[in-house]
TrEMBL record:
<keyword id="KW-0479">Metal-binding</keyword>
<comment type="subunit">
    <text>The cytochrome bc1 complex is composed of a cytochrome b (QcrB), the Rieske iron-sulfur protein (QcrA) and a diheme cytochrome c (QcrC) subunit.</text>
</comment>
<keyword id="KW-0472">Membrane</keyword>
<keyword id="KW-0812">Transmembrane</keyword>
<dbReference type="Pfam" id="PF13442">
    <property type="entry name" value="Cytochrome_CBB3"/>
</dbReference>
<dbReference type="InterPro" id="IPR009056">
    <property type="entry name" value="Cyt_c-like_dom"/>
</dbReference>
<feature type="binding site" description="axial binding residue">
    <location>
        <position position="165"/>
    </location>
    <ligand>
        <name>heme c 2</name>
    </ligand>
</feature>
<dbReference type="Pfam" id="PF00034">
    <property type="entry name" value="Cytochrom_C"/>
</dbReference>
<feature type="binding site" description="covalent">
    <location>
        <position position="62"/>
    </location>
    <ligand>
        <name>heme c 1</name>
    </ligand>
</feature>
<protein>
    <recommendedName>
        <fullName>Cytochrome bc1 complex cytochrome c subunit</fullName>
        <ecNumber>7.1.1.8</ecNumber>
    </recommendedName>
</protein>
<dbReference type="GO" id="GO:0005886">
    <property type="term" value="C:plasma membrane"/>
</dbReference>
<keyword id="KW-1133">Transmembrane helix</keyword>
<keyword id="KW-0677">Repeat</keyword>
<feature type="binding site" description="covalent">
    <location>
        <position position="161"/>
    </location>
    <ligand>
        <name>heme c 2</name>
    </ligand>
</feature>
<feature type="domain" description="Cytochrome c">
    <location>
        <begin position="46"/>
        <end position="129"/>
    </location>
</feature>
<keyword id="KW-1278">Translocase</keyword>
<dbReference type="InterPro" id="IPR036909">
    <property type="entry name" value="Cyt_c-like_dom_sf"/>
</dbReference>
Length: 271
């Protein structure tokens, strides 16, 4: 019995062995883990923290402190959980957000944030839930597209986009006081992000509906369209048959009214 008791382990031995094993594993991981990855994680965390602070000042009054959305009187902010970084980059980069006051639609205007601040806001919203990332330049850069690619982009645009944005991308009216904005002057990245995220009443075009290459072809077509020289004459806003029909109606009806008045006045003088 004395021999067995002498070899009995101390009650704290297991705990000490576990702590020793954890220290060894931690030391080995610190040696073999990539330093760049640790630095990147630290930088990302700092960017998210900066974005959270900006969000609390400029966005939380409508969208809630955690991006959960809220409705309070005239203030209505949709939830942002799961919209992704691309939606923030588009809305803030085009100046649509933050809105000065609630309205039917957020118009494009000069943005209020620097590129670094927009990136921080996007990183914070992306941390709330998975969603579309900000695209890489090769995704939306139309350089290298052939004439066939541009023609294909035109077909895709007329099939999926022209019903709202007009065949020339000049925009058009929509129900309930809303409108499809003009696509002239919109950056390639924001065009791609709009198709990715479907801002406001625009439908979303995920990769299963329009592949990244097809999105790039549409962007190339729009670039080609906007680079065409003006041949002169009255473009009437480039709105096609809508504006042309309106002016034909106004001018034609005006001529008929003037002719009727003239005939009536001439008949009255003849009497």
């Amino acid at each position: 019995m004395r021999f067995l008791s002498a070899r009995r382990r101390h009650p704290a031995a297991k705990v000490l062995m576990l702590l020793f094993a954890l220290v060894v594993v931690g030391g080995i991981y610190s040696v073999v883990s990539p330093a760049d990855q640790v630095a990147a994680d630290t930088g990302k965390s700092q960017q998210i923290a900066e974005g959270k602070a900006l969000f609390a000042v400029g966005c939380a009054s409508c969208h809630g402190l955690q991006g959960e959305g809220q409705v309070s009187g005239t203030i209505q902010g949709p939830p942002l959980i799961g919209v992704g970084a691309a939606a923030v980059d588009f809305q803030v980069g085009t100046g649509r957000m933050p809105m000065a006051q609630p309205g039917q639609q957020a118009p494009r205007k000069k943005n209020l944030y620097t590129d670094e601040e927009i990136a921080a806001l996007a990183a914070y919203v992306a941390s709330l839930g998975p969603g579309p990332d900000i695209p890489a330049e090769e995704d939306y850069n139309p350089e290298g597209l052939s004439d066939e690619d541009l023609a294909r982009g035109g077909e895709l645009f007329r099939t999926n986009c022209s019903a709202c944005h007009n065949f020339a991308g000049s925009g058009g009216a929509l129900p309930n006081g809303k409108y499809a904005p003009t696509l002239e002057g919109v950056s390639n990245r924001h065009l791609y992000e709009a198709m990715q995220t479907g801002p406001q009443q625009m439908p979303v075009f995920p990769d299963r509906a329009l592949t990244p290459e097809e999105k790039r072809q549409i962007i190339g077509y729009l670039n080609h369209l906007n680079s065409q020289p003006n041949a002169g004459g009255f473009t009437l806003g480039g709105l096609g048959p809508v504006s042309e029909g309106f002016w034909a109606w106004v001018v034609g009806l005006g001529v008929l009214i003037a002719f009727t008045v003239w005939i009536t006045a001439k008949g009255a003088r003849a009497k």
